[in-house]
Amino acid sequence: MYTPPVREMRFQLCSVLGVDAPEDLVEQILDEAAKLAVSAFLPLNRVGDKSGVVCTDTGVTMPPGFRDAYQAYVSGGWNGVAADEKWGGMGLPFSVAMAVQEMWQSANMSLALCPLLNQGAIEAISAHGTDAQKALYLPPLVEGRWTGTMNLTESGAGSDVGAIRTRAVPDGDHYRLFGQKIFISYGDHDLADNILHLVLARMEGAEAGTRGLSLFLVPKYLVNSDGTLGARNDVVAASTEHKLGQHASPTCVMSFGDKDGAIGYLLGAVGGGMAAMFTMMNHARLGVGIQGIAVAEAACQQALAYADVRLQPKPISDYPDVQRMLKTMQSSLLAARALAYDAGHALDRFKASGDKADAARADLLTPIVKAWATDLANDLTSLALQVHGGMGYIEETGIAQYVRDARVLAIYEGTNGIQANDLAFRKILRDGGQAARTYIAELRTFAKAAPDLPLDDSLTALESALTWVLAASPDQVAASATPFLRLFALTAGAARLAHSLQISREKAPDMAPHIQKMAAFFAGNSLPMTTALQKIVEGGADSILK
Ligand SMILES: Cc1cc2nc3c(=O)[nH]c(=O)nc-3n(C[C@H](O)[C@H](O)[C@H](O)COP(=O)(O)OP(=O)(O)OC[C@H]3O[C@@H](n4cnc5c(N)ncnc54)[C@H](O)[C@@H]3O)c2cc1C
Questions:
Q1: Which residues contact 322 (CB under 8 A, 6 or more apart)?
Q2: Staple 41 to which of 94, 107, 119, 293, CB 3.0 to 4.6 Å?
Q3: Ligand 1: does its nearest atom lie under 6 Å from the Cβ of 53?
Q4: Which ligand 1 atom sits closest to the C-alpha of 158?
Q5: How far is the CA of 417 from the centre of ligand 1 (A)?
Q6: Mean pLDDT of 284-298
Q7: How would you class 222 by CB atoms within 10 Å of its CB: exposed for 0-12, middle for 13-18, buried for 19 or more?
């Protein structure tokens, strides 16, 4: 059974990163979240997978037990871990909320996707809302009494967001929206009293492409000025998708304006829709990275337990090839978690200091965390299945669900191909590689402090590939972006493992032997791929383009 890795989380947050919160408070939060994740979310994971959701004319009904579990989460105040105290939140660092989030996701990813989206909506309204919008919408969202969605995708507009056709027509102090969105997670459900849809749409006459898009707040139930709920708005879930995994997360086709138009309110500036939505998306991208770590952690724990009890004729965990699979999972998770929290910590530092270098670091790491952690989710859940042999392929062990649930993570919230483009074009080329060079210089200090781990070749490979990206043509960069992101991730993950090892020797000697073992395994079995990836980045593009 899944046990949240609370000790490791606390070590990363408090000892390695030194987050701005008392250690005993962090410990208490992690312990209490672990209890709820295991007692309320985990028992429903299989239930939700088997029963799925039901969509009728009156809306979407969630699987049995989901409403109670969500209510337990809301009444514990868990929806507001990182939210501003002014709106009812706990005001804790985002990096701490990431660890808490990981537990919900490991225990029940379908259910936990709902609060993940809420957090993004809270961020977007906090950053772009008027004072009146914040006062009206943030308290119930922070509490979790209402939930939020993000509405970008349309049948003709997936990765190409600029092709969005949903229209917004001015009508007094608000707008009326007409159009159809597809694949909208938690577009409808019966967990909460109201749903706030954040919808990208084009005002009549606005220019084509992303610059003509604005963001609108479209409540399921209209909200009176005193915060009470009014009439049902003209937005409905027309249907839900039947899909490979995450069966208990309703993925909805949303119809806006079948009657006289869905009433929406502008959030942020006219034509500033993408900028405002990016606040939500960046947040959600780190959250999806955490989903990847979370589902792989749950699968890894199950594989570790199974390997000790399965006799062929001795425990299969005694065989070197099984040890290879188990250690691949454990070491990759340790590295990815360290990297993800580092990204969250950069956001926390930016919030506290306003230092643009911290924002640049968070921006740089966001696509790396999203893509690497979710590629790992696919690789590692598959390895966990492999450890189970034939039983892994049989639904009753539960490993197959992890494999199915994980598959979408590399697709939604911007496919991993789009993340690689984002890293190369927006995060590297736009500042001439400055943020990347600063980060790599820090990784070099970690390498120097851990001379027993062979990191130098990988750092040199990354620097060489970075120089190549900065000099290459746009087509070459696009062709090499995915191996470049992987090279960056593996090197950064290994360096953060080296750093964790150094800190554990100083501050947590009980953890040092395990981290030493994992860092050595990662250096010997995963890191050597970096020199091959450098060759692919620098030598593979032309054959793709020919
Ligand atoms: C279960 C689920 C839940 C979802 N939840 C939401 C949600 O809540 N809100 C929402 O708005 N959307 C949601 N989505 C939609 C999701 O974000 C999109 O599916 C995703 O962005 C990809 O768009 P697409 O499916 O149209 O694929 P396409 O854009 O058609 O991409 C197909 C392939 O082409 C590649 N590709 C496309 N353009 C480029 C490019 N410029 N450069 C390189 N490669 C490219 C992609 O990487 C991919 O491999 C969800 C999807 C699913 C399956």
A1: 307, 316, 387
A2: 107
A3: no
A4: 26
A5: 10
A6: 97
A7: middle
